[in-house]
Every structure is written in C-alpha cells, then in structure tokens.
What we know:
This protein is an alpha/beta fold. The protein has helices spanning 3-22, 52-60, 74-83, 87-90, 122-127, 196-210, 233-245, 253-275, 310-313, 340-348, 364-369, 430-446, 467-476; strands at residues 27-33, 62-68, 106-107, 132-137, 162-164, 216-222, 282-288, 314-321, 329-331, 335-336, 377-382, 391-396, 399-404, 410-414, 453-454. Helix 7 (233-245) crosses helix 8 (253-275). The longest helix has 23 residues, at 253-275.
Amino acid sequence: MPIQSIITNALAILGTATIALAEPKPNIIVFLVDDLGWGDMGCYGSTLHETPNVDRLAKEGVRFTQGYAACTVCSPSRAAILTGQYPARLHLTDWIAGHNHAKAKLKVPDWKMHLDHSLTTLPEALKTRGYATAFFGKWHLMPNRQKELMPEHTPEKHGFDLNVGGREWGQPKGKGKYFYPWEMPGLEQGRTGDFLTDRLTTEANSWMDTVKGKPFLLYLSYYAVHGPIMTKPELRTQYQAKLKAGDYPQKNADYAGMIHSVDQSVGRVLANLEKHGLSENTLVIFTGDNGGDAETSSGGLRKRKGYSYEGGIREPFIIKWAGKAKPGTTNDTPVIGMDIYPTLLEAAGAVRPQGQACDGISLVSLLQKGTPLERDSLYWHYPHYHRTRPYSAIRMGNWKLIRFHEEGNLELYHLNKDPSESSDLAATFPEKAKSLATQLDLWLKSVDAQQMTPNPGYDPNAGRGGKKNRQNRQKKK
C-alpha cells in the first residue's frame, strides 16, 4: 500500500476516534420498581392499569419481552444490578434478613447481608468518569443489627453522592407507611397527605435541577409497588369506577393506583429532562427487582414473586437511548439485571474494574447494531426457603431446567412453546434434563455458589417453613 494511503487511512481512524471521544457522556436514569410484575404495564398487556408514560418510553426505546431479574426476591437482584455479578457469586442470595426455618430439611448457608467494599459498584465506576450520582428510594442492602443501622453500608458508602430514602427497610415502615409521616433519610419534612412515590420523584427532580456541567446517574428505586398496598384516594376512586364498569383480569383498585402513581412519576422525570434539554443525551432504563406479589401481575406467566417460575423472575425491561437504540422496537433476546452494569459502563466510556468478575454482558452493540449477545445461558440460585422450595435453575436457549434441592428433583420446560410452564418435560426428554443439570453444576462451581447442607434440627412434622413451622416458633415464644 502506498505510504500516502497509509497516512490517509491512519488520519481517518484517528479522526473517528477523536469524534467518538468528543461525544458527550450520556446522563443515566434507572427506574427500579419494587415487586413489579411482567404484566403490570400497559405495554406489557395490562388492560386495567393506565401507564401512558411507561408506554411512551417503550415506543421511544426498546422493549424487551424476555427481561429477567437476577433473583425471585429483592435484595439479591438489587445487588446484581449494582455490581454486574450473579447473587450466587456475591453470596447475597436472599432478601435481607431472610426467613429462619430452623426445622426445615436443609440448612441455609452463611450468606452475606451487604455488599463487599472490595467491589466497585455502578456509581463508583461512573464517578471515575466525572458523574454525579444520587440514590432515591429503597436500598435494602444492609441488615439492621440489634436495631442499630450499619452506616458503613448505606448508599453513600457504596458510591452515591446523595441518598434520599434509602435504608435497611424493604418497605416503608414509618407511621404513615406510604403517606407522610414516614422515617426516611432526607425526607424528614413533609405535609399530611404527601405520597411517598410522588415525594421521591419531587426530590429526584430537584436534584436534577442542581446538576450543572457534568453527567449524572439518577437511580430512582421506588418502594412502590411493594406492600402495604396503599394509594391516593382519587386514584382509588378512579379505578373502583373502572372495575365496576368493566371486566378485567386485575381486580385491585389500590394496587392499580400505585402503578398509576409510578407511571405519573416516570412522566414527571422525563418531562424534567425535556425542560432541561437533556432528553437527547440521556439513557433511560425501566425495570423491576422481582415478579409481582400477585399472580394477576404476571401476565399469564406461572406464579409470582418468591417462586422459581417465570412469574417470579421475568420483568418489564425497557431501554431508551436517543440516537443509539432504535425507537419503537421489541426485542426477544433474554437479558438480565446484571447486564445493566456493563451496559452503563460502556455507554459512559468507563473501564470495568480490573480483576472484578462481571457476569452481565453489555447490551450496547445489541441496542445500536442488533448484534446478538454471545451468551446462551442464564442462571438462578436460591438456597433458601420462601414461597418456593430451595432451587437452582438454568435457561439455555428456550429450555429451562429447575432443580429443587430438597429431593434433587428436576423440572424441564420449553419456554417458547410453553411460556406458562404448564408441561413438565423432564420425563419426556431425560437426556436434555441431564445435560442441562450438568451445565448447571458447572456454573454453580464456577461462581463458588454456596450450597445447602442437611439440617440436624430437621423436623418432618414441622413442614418446610409453612404454617406448622410458624406455629412451632410461636409456641416457643
């Protein structure tokens, strides 16, 4: 090749790199809704819930139909988003502080109830790129030991410049619950009738108003729609009238009002972006931490929060990135909460922490070019008792295998043909079940997953943590 051509090509490459580096870093907004069911939003099929703002977000972005939470309960899923690691690798595998089923067949491992400070979290990684970071809402990533908070594990200690509302609680527990008065850091003042979802949004918008001259991460982690189910009187009246006038699969007016409030808040944040002229340079993610708390929220999927089935782990998952992700598209690629971490780091031009494992895969090329992900499997590991029995699971392609740890029994489903998991195919395709079980074992070993052990205090008459077990504990008290 002539030397002039070499020089011309080199200058072209350098010019492209300079342009890429000159692109402004995108602002980032993460909407994380607690206990959000796959079928709770209008764009995911709900006919009762009115969600025009989230529906608009889906039309302006990419709506994933097979988006997953990293766990069937909240704390592990939240940890996975912030670190990009599977809960099994983190050893943070249950909601904090979990259940204590002392007479169950298997003993729960000694799992963690906080994030290790050795890990670089999402806000910490983004701060290396000059981002302002703020957290609003539910944290639930630290225990409450002997009624004393652990200040070393608040949001501020894991990379957020500001924390409003985040503490050890998994749900609002102040005197008024979702209505003022509550007991939230940064929300000490209020007025009677203030609704928590609205107030968090007001504070988030106020913070956005103050960020000048630098990109930001706004992490809006709503307590809604976790119980207690409470809504504003005017929304209760609205949905009671709607339910009276028509027949809907979902029947709870108060819950519908909570969904409505979340949608209104999403609209308020997006409107504030537009007011500041930031919509064209902001990446927005909308998702949830686990399945809905009622099966009517699951959109026809099996079961709900706390279960091993799709209703417990599949989530609304929407990404809007103007100029980067093609608007109005639907994507069937299986994605999961850990993917948020590497996606946002790549979008911001941040380098992944050296030596820190990342189980998620960046979705940037998928969003921009439609490039398929180089991944064929997703995994879940829940060595705990909740509504479900302890289990591990693998999804490989359209196949999903669940292994329940008490007896080691397997269930096998083909999600493309049977998304509601109504037909267990383990006996029909034993070789497929065996192959997936082997792959699952290899993954569990690779992430150093904690395993359950036989419980020396097992009492078969006490049940596995259900009614009999609770009655036995009450008698001891």
